[in-house]
Amino acid sequence: MKFGLVGFDGRLGSEVFNLFLEKEHSCVYKYSLGTEEETAVPDVLIDCSLPDVFEKSIELVEKFESPFIIGTTGLTEKHFAELKRIAQKVPVVQSFNFSIGIQVLLQLAKQADEIVPDWDVEISETHHRFKKDKPSGTALMIKDAVDREEVNMSSLRLGNVAGDHTISFGGLGEVLSINHRALSRRTFAEGILKSAEFAANAKPGFYTFTEVLFKNK
């Protein structure tokens, strides 16, 4: 697979770059602020950057007409409207978290909420000190998984934590907590690789990572 990577030198971008090369895919386009290299049209374009670069990424998708994988957090409704617009032309896979474990957590949280709808719910998340958005996109995904109008969320920014997320359900006599801890950003890179393989053979449309993993199951 020939791939393009926006944000290739960032924390996640570096993991994606190394994993794809390890799997013998070739990087034919890479971009970061101040650096742009292009040797061919990519079979898939991946964005591991920040919302500031979003418009550039959209320009590239329209230029290459390549399937698009985006893991940028902090996206607004305007950004999603643009993603759904280009999804009419190419496959787009969007997620705030490409971890398989988080997908399992989302399924478990939804089931727990259906069983104990009258229990209290709290979500907490911890990330590295450099993460700008708060709460995290993953915390918002977890909130969307439960059928509650309001859920309290707490955020910590400490050291170099890749990502810790917990949803807790509390009754008057017990507390149930479902926790996920990312030990390495490689887990996100592996999810992005699965998404790239999926998008390379998908029809135009807007897809989530949940659909990548469970669409045919």
Protein topology:
Elements: E1 2-6, H1 11-22, E2 26-32, E3 35-38, E4 44-47, H2 54-64, E5 68-70, H3 77-86, E6 91-94, H4 100-115, E7 120-127, H5 137-145, E8 152-157, E9 164-170, E10 175-181, H6 186-199, E11 205-208, H7 209-214
Parallel strand pairs: 1-2, 1-4, 4-5, 5-6, 6-11, 7-8
Antiparallel strand pairs: 2-3, 7-9, 9-10
Helix pairs in contact: 1-6, 2-3, 4-5
| H-E order | EHEEEHEHEHEHEEEHEH
Q: What is the strand content?
A: 25-35%
Radius of gyration from the CA trace? 18 Å
Cα shape? globular
Class per helix and strand makeup: alpha/beta
- Which stretches are poorly predicted, pLDDT < 50 over at least 5 residues? none
* Strands, total number: 11
Which percent bin holds the helix content? 25-40%
**Total helical segments:** 7
Task: Give the integer mean of the pLDDT values.
Answer: 94
Can you summarize this structure?
The chain is an alpha/beta fold and 217 residues long. It is 36% helix and 27% strand.
Describe the structure.
This protein is an alpha/beta fold and 217 residues long. It is 36% helix and 27% strand. The protein contains 7 helices and 11 strands. The strands form 2 sheets. The chain has a 7-stranded mixed β-sheet with strand order 3-2-1-4-5-6-11, sandwiched between helices. It has a 4-stranded mixed β-sheet with strand order 8-7-9-10, with helices on one face. Helix 1 crosses helix 6, helix 2 packs parallel to helix 3 and helix 4 packs parallel to helix 5. The protein is globular. The protein starts with a strand and ends with a helix. The relative contact order is 0.17. The model has no long low-confidence stretch (mean pLDDT 94).
